[in-house]
Amino acid sequence: MRVIDSHVHFPSEKIIDTGGADRPEGKAAGASMPGAPAPANPWLIEEKEKWKRAWRFPPEEKLDTEESIRRWKAECDSHDFLKNVVFVTAGDNEFAAELAEKDGRFIGYAHHDPLLPDAADRLEKALGSLRLRGYKLLGPQIDVPLNDKRFYPLWEIAQAREVPVLIHFGILGGAGGIANHININPLVIHDVAKDFPRLPIIIPHFGCGYVFETLNLCWACPNVCIDTSGSNQWMRWMPYELNLEILFRKYRETIGAGRILFGTDSSWFPRGFTDAYLDEQIRAMVYVGYSADELDRVLYSNAASLLKL
Predict the structure, then answer these.
(1) Contact (Cβ atoms closer than 8 angstroms) between residue 82 and residue 75
(2) Which residues lie in Basic and acidic residues bias regions (predicted)?
(3) Is residue 174 part of a domain?
C-alpha cells in the first residue's frame, strides 16, 4: 500500500494567510476557526469532547514549530506507506514553502486571503518562486461569492500553472460554527468550473453535508474532484441515513474512483497522522467492492497525478 495524505494542516493558529494586512471589505481573516463558540456553553464543550472520546484522541499538546516539524517527519518515518503529506495550511505561504524544503515528503499549498488587493500577485509568487503546489480556500470565510469576477485572475493563474484549488464548502467549525453563508454551497463554484475547464477543483470532506449539490457539481464539471478527509461527523446531522460505505459507493457510481482523493485532516500532536480515519475508509471501500487498482488510485495515484509527483 502507498498513500498520499492530500489534506493535512500544519499546527498553526492561522488557517488563512493574511499577509499581515486586513482586506478592504468583509470581516478580517486569519482566526483559528470562524464562529468560535463561547467557552462557557456546556453543550458545545460536550460536543467537542464527545468527538475526542469517540475517536480516542488524546489531549492536544502545545509544541513549538521545530518540534512539530520533527514529529511530522517521524510520522512519515513510522508509516512507511505514507509517501507524501500535503499541508493545505501552515500559517502563511512563506512558511509552507520552507516546510516543503525541509523534507521531500512534504508538499505545501498557498492559503492566503483571496480578497487581499494583491491576492493574484501573491498566488503567482506562491506557485512560482515559492514552488507551492495548490491553493486552499475556506468558502464560509470569504464574504464575496466565489463566482464573482474579481476572483477570476486567481483562477486564471491556477489554471495556467495547472495546480488544484481546494475549497471547503459546507458547515465550518463543528458545533457552534458557521452553517449559513453565501459560500456554503459548492454549487456557487459551478460557473467557475465551467469557465476554467482545465482548473482542477477539489471539494473536501465529500462535500461536508452538501452531498446532492457536490454530486451534481461533479457530474456537470469533470474538472471537479472530492477528497475524503476528516472524521466526516457531519453525516450525523444529515436528515437521512448516511455512512462512509454509502458515500464511497455513490461517488464511485457518479464520477468513478479516479476523482476521489484520500485525506485525513490531520494536524496536531500527539494524534499526528490519523490512522483511524485511514482504516475506516479502507474498510468502507473494500466492503463496497473497490478493486486493488481503485484503492491505489484513491489512496495514492490520483493525488500523485494531480500534483505531478
Answers:
(1) yes
(2) 14-26
(3) yes
Q: Which amino acid is at 308?
A: K
With H, G, I as helix, E, B as strand and everything else as coil, classify residue 257: helix
Q: Is residue 120 part of a domain?
A: yes
Give the pLDDT score at 122.
98
Cα distance between residue 284 and residue 278, in whole Å:
10
Quote the number of domains for the chain: 1
pLDDT at residue 19 tops 90: no
Pick from 265, 260, 291, 261: which is nearest to 277 by CA? 265
pTM of the model: 0.93
Sorted by sequence, the CB contacts under 8 Å of residue 59 that are 6+ apart come out as: none
Is 27 within a domain?
A: no
| Beta strand spans in the chain (E) | 3-9, 82-89, 106-108, 135-138, 165-168, 201-203, 224-227, 260-261
25, part of any domain = no
pLDDT of residue 23: 45
pLDDT the model gives residue 31: 41
Domain residue limits at 137:
3-20+40-306
